[in-house]
Amino acid sequence: MLPTFIKGLATWTTTTDVTALTVGTDGMGRVWFRDRLTDAITSLRAFVLYDGETIVLDFSAEPTSDVVSNIDIEQYMFLFPYVVVQEDALGVADEDGRIALFSRQTELPEDVLAGQLQALEEHDDVPRPQFFTDLVIYNNDLVYASDQGFLERFDPGTGLLLSPLANTQSRLPQTVQGSHFWTHCGCGGSRDAYRRSLGTVYDTVSSESEMGGPITMRAMAYVPNTDRLWIHACAFDDQFGRFFVMNTLSEPDVVETTVPFNRDLRALAFDGTYFWGLITVGSQSVVLINPTTGRSSRPTRCPTKTSHGRAWWSSATICGSWAPTCWAADACFAWRARAEALAAPPQLRAYAARRARSCSPPGPGRAWRGAGPRAARRPARRTLRRGLRA
Questions:
Q1: Distance (Å, rounded) from C-alpha 95 to C-alpha 298?
Q2: Cβ contacts of residue 232 below 8 Å, gap of 6+?
Q3: Cα–Cα distance, 255 to 267 (Å, whole number)
Q4: Count of CB atoms within 10 A of residue 372's CB?
Q5: Distance CA 40, CA 326 (A)
Q6: Residues 79-122: pLDDT tens digits?
Q7: What is the pTM of this model?
Q8: Which of 131, 153, 247, 360, CA to CA, is 20 to 30 A from 347?
Q9: Phi, psi dihedrals of residue 375, rounded to the nearest 5°
Q10: What is the 3-class SS of 219-269, one letter each residue?
Q11: First to last CA, the chain
């Protein structure tokens, strides 16, 4: 169901499965997904309209740029013109006759939901971070690039914002190796990484000359156990997300291995065994990443109180950029996806069979309207969306 809805990256193939649907008493819902490649769990908000015969999911409730960047979506509104609601099950079919089954739950299990990250401390009135910066520990201070053009310093011991280290000057900190930063510029595709002090560049990792071709670099983490630099990036040619494990001990810098992780990764930190990462789709989640397999676990949603915040704890630092405020309603019912399509109610299977024998599916622009028995009486799209928002 929801064909080609969420992908690992906007230009990659479909890699996710719908796992659950929750609907609140106010008509707002949330659809939960699991990524097959990384085991990452994420969710998106939706307006939900059910008229007794048809369900409409309208994902325009997610207006963030992350949705545009990370989701390849055919349309923002999906219609399921045939719905069967039973005491313990929900069955829906789309216009092509494809069936999805959900079992009713009093609450969704942990393997479907992302937990809530507990905020141990909050510090207000700090400069907003620049979009591509990470948060790093440097001389026992937390350092990041602000959107005001400075390398900001924050003392976690006293909770005080200190005077900036310097102007940013395209030096966006990603991780620290000894007394040096690893940075990229957040410009021109961010094709190069730099090990530097505030005034001197000591090493440049060039993707075009040392990594096999142009690569867009994002999150990085230095691993002292192995003296290696991990760079999460996407090659220009396939746009597939992966870790590049770099040996930077001598020139030229060498890619020792790669580990697939096809998710947008905004921040990365190493705790001595695993990585902590901040992944982003329509919402942000902090995940634990196995460096051997590239699989994630223990997903937790970022705190929702602040819209532009950073999360950090212990010696690991994780930061997020422009975190969207997550919404969660008091669910009046929750449904978990089931795979047994053959167990669908007979009337739902009959409808699917009729649709499969019918003519070609509707063309672009008609997909949301459907051919349900009350389609002719449904309001136009603009009216429907206004009504849902009212």
A1: 36
A2: 217, 218, 219, 220, 241, 242, 243, 244, 261, 265, 268, 277
A3: 20
A4: 21
A5: 17
A6: 888 888 887 888 888 777 778 788 888 777 777 777 777 777 88
A7: 0.74
A8: 360
A9: -60, -40
A10: EEEEECCCCEEEEEEEECCCCCEEEEEEECCCCCCEEEEEEECCCCEEEEE
A11: 28
